[in-house]
Amino acid sequence: MTTNQDQTTQHEAVEVEATVPEVIVPLDDATFKQRLAATIPHLRAFGYSLCGKMDLADDLVQDTMLKAWAARARFRPDTSMRAWTFVILRNCYISQMRRNKFTAPYDEGVAERTLTSNSDQQAPLHLEDVRMALMQLGEDQREAIILVGAGGFSYEEAAEICDCAVGTMKSRVSRARAALLAMLDGDSPIGTRRQRNSADEAMSDILGTLDRLSEGVTALAA
Amino acid sequence: MHTSGFDPLVMRQARIGRSLREAYDCVTGSPLPDQFESLLNELDKISAPVGSR
User: Fold this and answer.
1) How far apart are the CA of B48 and the nearest CA of chain A, in angstroms?
2) Are A29 and A72 in contact (CB under 8 A)?
3) B37: nearest CA in chain A?
4) Is the CB of residue A81 less than 8 Å from the CB of residue A39?
5) Whether B40 and A58 lie within 8 Å, measured CB to CB
6) How many CB pairs under 8 A join A and B?
7) In tens digits, what is the pLDDT along chain A, a chain of 222 residues?
8) What sign results for the dihedral spanned by CA atoms A141, B10, A151, A154?
């Protein structure tokens, strides 16, 4: 049985816990640097998905690393370094966008070189299409689908990174999925481009057949 | 009539999801430019801002 005195003591304990500021013990520099280095590949992928240019993405990552290093005392060791640095990278991107550093949304040449996969001969073309479709999404939807669909973040983590409500994040991901599906299934510009390629190939086949037929006619005439 | 039991829409969404991850993994799996190794080596020389630690 709980007495009034016990309840009072518990209540006071809760109040004390609530008023004592939480002490964050920062990582030592070597450990921080090690964990920061491990996030670089992910930062590059996220940066590239935001700006569409690998060289600019690398600049973004470098700025992010410098800012993260300067703020390393504020990093909580019990949280995700990847999520923390993604927030920094996203802020860098937004501030550089405001300065109009990122003017070209998509670099097809870089995308082709970057996204070429050796394992499947069909994959490079498809990945290029996915990449192009991604760049046609609005920024909000693009970062949402990259974080949740590719980066492996939960809706909650992605919402925190993008500074929005979890419901908003779910909605963005859902709309991004629907838009990608429409584009890659042929209802939108990317699909139209693929259909046009098929039409070009069909026309090429017809012209080739005509060439062979005309060669036959020429041979018969000779 | 035999049906496969797979919803085509779900299959297409899964394919796109897989491609998204492949696109992401292609970047994460690509070799890091030398500039990052240099930057990591330089970090020790950069002290934290006054009052941040």
Assistant:
1) 5
2) yes
3) A37
4) yes
5) no
6) 99
7) 445 555 555 555 555 555 666 677 788 899 999 999 999 999 999 999 988 889 999 999 999 999 999 999 999 999 999 999 999 999 999 988 877 655 544 454 544 444 444 344 344 446 778 888 898 999 999 999 999 999 999 999 999 999 999 999 999 999 999 998 888 876 555 544 554 455 555 555 555 555 555 555 555 554
8) positive
- From residue B50, give the alpha-carbon distance in Å to each of A191, B42, B46: 54, 19, 12
How far apart CA A61 and CA A45 sit, in angstroms, is 10
Query: Within its chain, how far is the Cα of A45 from the centroid?
Result: 6
Search chain B and give the residue with CA nearest A174. Answer: B13
Long-range contacts of A72-79 (CB under 8 A, 24+ apart): A72/A26, A72/A27, A72/A29, A72/A32, A72/B48, A73/A24, A73/A26, A73/B48, A73/B52, A73/B53, A74/A24, A74/A26, A74/B52, A75/A26, A75/A27, A75/A32, A76/A24, A77/A24, A77/A25, A77/A26, A77/A27
Complex confidence, ipTM: 0.79
Chain B partners within 8 Å of A134 (Cβ): 20, 23
Going from the C-alpha of A22 to that of each of A31, A91, A124, A134, the distances in angstroms are: 22, 26, 50, 41
- Compute CA A74 distance to the chain's CA centroid, rounded to the nearest angstrom: 25
Instruction: Return the residue of A nearest to B9 by Cα.
Output: A181
Q: Contact A181/B16 with Cβ under 8 angstroms?
A: yes
Structural domains in chain A? 29-202 (1.20.140.160)
From A44, A73, A131, residue closest to B52, measured CB to CB: A73
